[in-house]
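Bump. Still looking for Endonuclease/exonuclease/phosphatase domain-containing protein structure tokens.
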Amino acid sequence: MTCNPQHIKLGEDSPQTRADRPRSCIYIRNFIPSKNIISTNIKSQNITQVAISVLIEGKNRNLTLLALYNPPSTFIGIQELEQRLAEINDRHTPMIIAMDSNLHHRLWNTKGYPHQHPQSRKLISLCGRSGFKMISPKGQPTFMGASGSATTIDLTWANSVVSKLISQCNFQLENHSSNHQPIITELNLEEKTLNIT
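Sorry for the wait, here they are.
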């Protein structure tokens, strides 16, 4: 997948073996000074975590971003997310979770798509009790399967601290050679608009 020239990619890029390759990354607009970006080394192929120092309500705050890949064969990403949130979740810290959930549920499925994974209920429960609500558009396809079926499996969640700063959360048609549509989340901050993919 190619990177939009207006963004920088954050996440591990040098796996020791093919089996160790990362399955998640985060793209942010390249106007964010590198001194404001704090990358966290997580021993997981499925989660990327960064914090960005931003000005919110006159105070410097760390906005935490999590990118999650939930493998469709095992759905282990939800368990890893649960463990990660148990370690870092603080309802006073602005946090966004972007994910390739590989899960279907009527809350976000495209119209007329009946399939639901039992694991999707666990995701909804985990995010709800952790103080997150889904902010990505519901019912819009984000993934084109090999058979041509269009489903919604890419989701974005935000906690209440950051929800009030979100100016938009929409899909972008330019997918940079991926079979997934990127979800652009834009925040209105005091310094400049922050655009996260």
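The chain has one domain: 7-196.

Edit: fixed formatting.
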